[in-house]
Amino acid sequence: MSGVVEIYVKPMEQNDIDDVVRIYLSSFKGMRSEDLVKRWFECNMKAYPRMQYFVALYRGRVIGYILWVEKGGFREESVWELEQIAVDPEFRRLGVGRRLIEDSLGYLKIYLDERQPRSRLKLILVSSSSSNEAARRLYENVLGAREEAVIRDLYRGDEIVYIARYYTLEKLKQ
Ligand SMILES: CC(C)(COP(=O)(O)OP(=O)(O)OC[C@H]1O[C@@H](n2cnc3c(N)ncnc32)[C@H](O)[C@@H]1OP(=O)(O)O)[C@@H](O)C(=O)NCCC(=O)NCCS
User: Fold this and answer.
1) Cβ(157)–Cβ(131) under 8 Å?
2) pLDDT tens digits for 22-67?
3) Which end of the chain has fewer CB atoms within 10 angstroms, the N or the C?
4) pLDDT, the chain, mean
């Protein structure tokens, strides 16, 4: 792949589900059954706009996805959780995760502006396993997120909760 410019991020559609299921299965161990994973994605898709998926495409192929979840109501000062992000193992360390976060936040800002003109993204919550150094770097480098708490033995071990607040988010390109 010649640089990140050829990546395109767009809202996920129904016909992207098989691709994201494949990426999930090569990225996570929480669910092993393809059928269960598919049901999980379909269920979350139905929760739009509270839950919003975006996919990254490279030459028409889905190579990553991100799931955002709005917390605590449709508030003017909106709070979102970056619930899940994964990039096809063949395409990691090429800036795809960064593009997924930055470009999907662009979509979320447009969505919020249309929903409530005075709204703004107050805070982003994100968490990952304490052993997941790639996720830590991604959240720190791209979101400016900082470690806030540790939840003992959440999924498969301790989970670190990171928070990104306005002042770091505002540094993101518009
Ligand atoms: C975490 C993940 C999404 C990162 O995606 P990616 O496309 O490889 O990340 P990028 O290439 O955009 O890197 C973004 C930043 O994170 C850092 N980073 C990413 N992977 C890293 C790694 N393995 N080690 C160290 N730093 C890493 C990069 O240095 C980069 O910072 P920079 O742009 O300032 O140099 C990817 O590794 C993945 O899918 N992992 C499995 C699923 C997962 O653990 N998801 C997170 C929990 S939900």
Assistant:
1) yes
2) 999 999 999 999 999 999 999 999 999 999 999 999 999 999 999 9
3) C
4) 94
φ and ψ of 124, to 5 deg:
-120, 130
Report how far ligand 1's centroid is from the alpha carbon of 106 (Å). 19
Nearest CA residue ID for atom 29, ligand 1: 137
Cα 14 to ligand 1 centre (Å) = 26
Q: What residues are in contact with ligand 1 under a 6 Å CB criterion? A: 27, 84-87, 92-98, 128, 132-135, 137-138, 141-142
Helix 17-25 vs helix 34-46: crossing angle, to nearest 10:
130
Longest Cα–Cα distance of the chain, Å, equals 43
Ligand 1 atom having least distance to the Cα of 93: 11
> Which amino acid would we find at residue 82?
L
CB 162 within 8 A of CB 137: no
Residue closest via CA to ligand 1's atom 32 equals 141
As a whole number, mean pLDDT of residues 142-152 equals: 97
Quote the pTM value. 0.95
Query: In whole angstroms, what is the distance from residue 147 CA to residue 130 CA?
Result: 11
Query: Would you identify the CATH topology of the domain 4-169?
Result: Aminopeptidase (3.40.630)
Give the angle 6-41-30 at the CA atoms, nearest 5°. Answer: 100
Give the containing element (helix H, strand E) for 83: strand 77-87
Give the torsion sign (CA, 65, 66, 69, 70). negative
